[in-house]
Amino acid sequence: MQTNQSSQDGVVSAISLLLVAQRKTRRWLAEELGRDQFWIGSRMNNRTMFKFSEVEQIAQVFGLSLDEFLAVPAAPSLRLDPLRRVRRHESA
């Protein structure tokens, strides 16, 4: 089963936020999933939709339950903290 577009956007947001918060890269995630960078890139850029089973795997890689993973885009602490770090880094 594939995700719909709004779910896809939520998954992409969750992955992006978690990668920044944990200071990891898409390459790291691809390696953890046993995939190549093209695979993760095509999904993160919305050329290919994530399958439900892939979302479950990604949540496991981040050490989260599926419910916790899907709640990430709504979590203010994860949304704001990485953005502050990025802004501070750009100012330096």
From TrEMBL:
- Which SUPFAM superfamilies does the annotation name? lambda repressor-like DNA-binding domains (SSF47413)
Which GO terms of the molecular function aspect are on file?
DNA binding
Superkingdom, taxonomy of origin = Bacteria
Identify the InterPro entries for this entry: Lambda_DNA-bd_dom_sf
Protein name as catalogued: HTH cro/C1-type domain-containing protein
State the species of origin. Leifsonia xyli subsp. cynodontis DSM 46306
